[in-house]
Amino acid sequence: MNIIDYRLNIRPLNIFIDPQFPVEKALITHAHADHARPGNGKVLATKETIEIMKLRYGNNCAGSFQSIKYGEKIKINDINITFFPAGHILGSAQILIENEGYKTLVTGDYKTIDDCISEPFELVKCDTLITEATFGLPIFQHPNAKDEIKKILHSINENKDSVHLIGCYALGKAQRIIYLLRNAGYEKTIYIHGALEKICDYYKNQKISLGKLEKVSNLENFKNNIVLAPPSALRDKWSRKFKNIIACQASGWLSIKQRVKQNQIEIPLIISDHADWTALTETIINSSAKRIWVTHGNEEGLVYWIKKKGLDAQPLSIQGRGEDRD
């Protein structure tokens, strides 16, 4: 029997998963702001999620914290809670709730491709699956990230008098872009906006190799350099200090050409930390779930596909979850 309601509240325990408002007890899947909010009483999450929350919100952003390891099982009033890797960002987790043999899995945000800087996604069998659907339409088929990053390296060789300004979010995406550049052989210093510094330092402290990084304020000659900044900074007065900008951005949404045009992006990098259509549908089938709740994105399209497969499905629209973290 499923004991989770549409607000992701484990009813017998009154524990919420990724609550959108302060609650007494919360389970947090990962540290992105649309899932991890300050002000909860007690928080259970992975060590990395807790540390990143404290880094972003301050040490007192919750009444108390308890960390849990992947695969560790915690029993509360005969209900078992287990966290499994989600592959989304560092510390991200899926949460399995077991009650009298019935298994309900909340995926949080996830991707099934191993990015080498977060614990790889682990498939979990369940009876009810509550899945994200950020890219829950067949048009979203993410290309190989290694091929996408080659666009930057090619452009650097062709445009030696330009600065390549890459828009990417501070937590997860920026570090993945840096890792991809390093893995592709780019060894020069990479310059970062101040908003990226704390999280990049945290990743480096977790023994994730990002190479030499410096704040952009230390850069005098912008030519033939790579600068990473939040996407909003590309359109802000902050970017006016640069000459001969080649505007780039990393997001799964940039497979939509209109998005590229609207944001005036010259080099779109279709690199996402969410599952695409193929990964979503494969995960649903491979989970063996007979009941699927769909949230966070294109719910209706995925619900239609699930029902065509003869499975029980319904949308679960949760306010406050958006697309702005990809």
Distance between the termini: 34 Å
| CATH fold group of the largest domain | Metallo-beta-lactamase, Chain A
Largest sheet data: 7 strands, mixed
Spell the H/E element sequence: EEEEHEEEEEEHEHEHEEEHEHEHE
Total DSSP helices: 7
What is the residue-averaged pLDDT? 95
CATH class of the largest domain: Alpha Beta
Class derived from helix and strand content: alpha/beta
Please, how many domains? 2
Flag low-confidence runs. none
Going across the major beta sheet, what is the strand order? 6-7-8-9-10-17-18
Strand content: 25-35%
Please tell me what the overall shape is. globular
Please give the share of residues in helix: 10-25%
In the CATH classification, which architecture of the largest domain applies?
A: 4-Layer Sandwich
From the alpha carbons, calculate the radius of gyration and give it in angstroms: 20 Å
The strand count comes to: 18
Give the name of the CATH superfamily of the largest domain. Answer: Ribonuclease Z/Hydroxyacylglutathione hydrolase-like
